[in-house]
C-alpha cells in the first residue's frame, strides 16, 4: 500500500506558510506501515491540481489532498476531485444543516459562500469526523481512493487520525503492527545522546529488533524515539518495553522525564498532585510562558494556583514583596519564588528572572537567567548563561526550571 | 520563467524533518518574479529521484534540487543528475583541494568519503559560493537547467541568494520587481472578507493590477496579502499603496489592526506608549498566554507592568480582590480588570475569565469567555461562546481582548 500526499495552496508555494501538514501525515503513514514515496505542493490552480492528482493515482494506491476545502473562490479541491472522477458535485442537505448550526452557535449568520462546503462529488462521501465547517472527503476512484482534508492543522489531524489512517489500513489489509515509544529527555545534548547510544544503535542495525531516532524539540525537550514492528500489538509492546529498558540503563533515568505524550509540565503537575502540593509561579523574563504551558492542558486547577508575571520592578516589589533585593540576582530569584508561594497560597513555587535582551541589565549580559525553586521552605537557585535568541532563551528557561522542580519533588518522594 | 523545487531526503517524507527549505526557496523565487508551480519531496531513491527530475524538466524551465549532496552513501543527488544528463561524474581537483583545506583548517583529517563531494557531472559546474564541504551544482541540460544545493539551511540560503536567483533572473531576462503588503485584520471571518472583496478580486483578475490572497493565521489574525508587479520599486510601491487604499475602503479601517510585521500585541503596546499608559493584565483561562505574547518581542518594559495569572479562585479573591463576585461572569471579568490595574499600577488593563473546559463551570458551557477592558476608569465586558478546542479558545480570546483594547485606545485618541 502506497499513499501520496498533495498539499494544496498557492501560499505554500510562495513560502507564506511552511507545509507542516505533509510532514505530520508522512509521519503517521510511516507509523501505520504505509509507504509514501512522493509528496507534492501545488497551487490553487485547477489544471495543475488535476495533473498532480492524476500523476499520483498513476503510481500510488491512495492520495491524500490537504487544503483547498474552504468557502472561498480559491478553494477548488472539491471541484477538481469531481473532475478527476468524471462526476458532478451534489449538495448534501445534512452538511448544509451541520454548517449552518456551527454558525448559529456562534451567533453569526452563515455567509452564502459556506454552502459550497456542503458539496460532495457524486460517489464520494464526507468524512464523518468534522471539527470545523469544512467536511473532509473520501472518494473511491476505481481500485484507488482520494481523501481530502482541510489545511487547518487541528481539523486535519483529527480527520487523519480518526478516519483516514484506519480506513487506509483496512483497505491495505495491514496485519503487521508498527509502534513507537518516545522517551522525553532533558539534560543531555543531542550529540551526547547520540554518543551514549552509538553502540546500541549499531547493535539494532544488525539485529533489526528496533530503531532509535533523536528529535530536538525546543521547549518539548529532546525526544528519543524507539520504533518496533511485529505481527501483534502484544509482541510490539514487548519489543518496545525491552528496548526502553536498555536505553534507560544506558542514558540513565534522571534525564528521562517522561514518555510519549508526557510533557515537563504534565509531569511536574502530576508530582505536585501526588504529593498534595499547590504550585505557584513568579515570572519575569518568561512573561507568562510557564503559566501558559502549565495551563495548556485541562484539569490542572486542583494543583496550579497562578502566576505573578512581574515584568516591572514595581510589581516585583509591591506584589511579590522583594523590596531591597536586586531584581536580577540569585537573591532576587529566591525572593520572587518565596513571594509567589506566599501571595498565591502555594506550598511549592518556581521563579525566573534574568536578561532577555535586547541589552545588558543589572551588570549581567543578555542570556543570563536565575531560576529558583521553592519546596518545603527551602529555596534553591540555578544560574545559567544561555547563548540563544530571545525565543529559545525563554523556552529553555521554562523547561529547565520545571526540570529543577521535578528533580526536587522526586527526591522528596523517595 | 518557471522553476520547480525538489527536496530530497527520506527523512522529509517520514516527517522527521519539516521541509522549510522549499518554503524559503519558493518565497525567494516569488519575490524574484519567477513562477513556481510545483514543489516535490522525494526520498533518497535513484529511480524515483530521476522520475521526479524528468517530470519537472518536462514542464518547467529550471529545477532546484535541495539535499542529497553530503558524503554518505545515501547522498546520490550528483549521481542522479549525471544519469538524467546522460553523462559521467568527473572529480574536480580544485574541489578536492578546497574540501581538504576545510578539514585541515579545523585540524581534522578528511574522511575518504568526502572525496565523493568533489565529483561533478561532465558539462556541469560547481556553484562558486560554497560555505560547507558540499559544492552546489549548476547543470545545463538542453535549454533547461538543474541546480543542486545542500539541505543544510545556512549553506542552502547562501547559494540560493548569492548564485541561483541571480543566475535564474539573468537566464529569464527579468527586469520586473514584485512586492507584497500584508493587511493584518481581526473581526471578519475569512469567508466574510472573501465576500466583501469578491468584486474587487474579479476586477483585479481582469486588470492584472495586483492580486489579493487571504491567510487565516490563528492568534496572528487573518492576513490579506496584496501583491503587485512593475518595472521599478517606486512603481510597485505606488500600486501597493493604491490597492491598499481600495481594500481599506471596502473592508473598513476598523478591522485592519496593522500591516506587514505588526502584531496585535505590538500595536496595542504602541498605542499605550503613545498615550503614556501602563498596561496590566489579569488572566484566568489564558494562563499567561497574553503576557507571553506581549513580552515575546523586546522593548516593552516601558509599557507592560505584568499579569496576575489568577487560575485559582483564591488568587482572584486575595490578589485581585474580587471577593463576593462570581469568578466566571461579566462582573467577575470587570472586577479582575479593575483589580489588575490597581494591583499592578497600570492605567489600562484587560482581563479574561471563562470556561476553557474540560467541563462546564459556573452554569456556563465550555467555550464561554468574558473579556474585560479597563481604560480611564471605565470597564467594558464582551461575552463570547467560542466553538473551538482549548488551544484555539485561548488564542482567539487573546487576540480578541487585545483588539477590544485597541479599539478603545483608538477612540480615545481621536
Characterize the structure shown.
- Two copies of one chain form a homodimer.
- By secondary structure, chain A is an alpha/beta fold.
- In chain A, the strands form four sheets. A six-stranded mixed sheet of chain A has the order 2-1-3-8-7-6, with helices on both faces. In chain A, strands 14-13-15-16-17 form a five-stranded mixed sheet, with helices on both faces. A four-stranded antiparallel sheet of chain A has the order 10-11-9-12.
- Helices cover about 40% and strands about 25% of the residues of chain A.
- The model of chain A has no long low-confidence stretch (mean pLDDT about 95).
- Chain A folds into three domains: about 5-170, MoaB/Mog-like domain (Molybdenum Cofactor Biosythetic Enzyme, Chain A, 3-Layer(aba) Sandwich), CATH 3.40.980; about 175-260, Alpha-Beta Plaits (2-Layer Sandwich); about 265-414, Alpha-Beta Complex (Maf protein), CATH 3.90.950.20.
- The longest helix of chain A is centred in the C-terminal third of the chain and has 24 residues, at about 390-414.
- Chain A contains 14 helices and 17 strands.
- Chain A is globular, with a radius of gyration of 26 Å.
Approximate strand percentage of chain A: 15-25%
Query: What structural class is derived from the secondary structure elements of chain A?
Result: alpha/beta
Secondary structure: helix percent of chain A: 40-55%
CATH homology-level superfamily of the largest domain in chain A: MoaB/Mog-like domain
Write out key terms for the chains shown.
homodimer; 414 residues; alpha/beta; Molybdenum Cofactor Biosythetic Enzyme, Chain A; Alpha-Beta Plaits; Maf protein; 3 domains; six-stranded mixed sheet; five-stranded mixed sheet; 41% helix; 24% strand
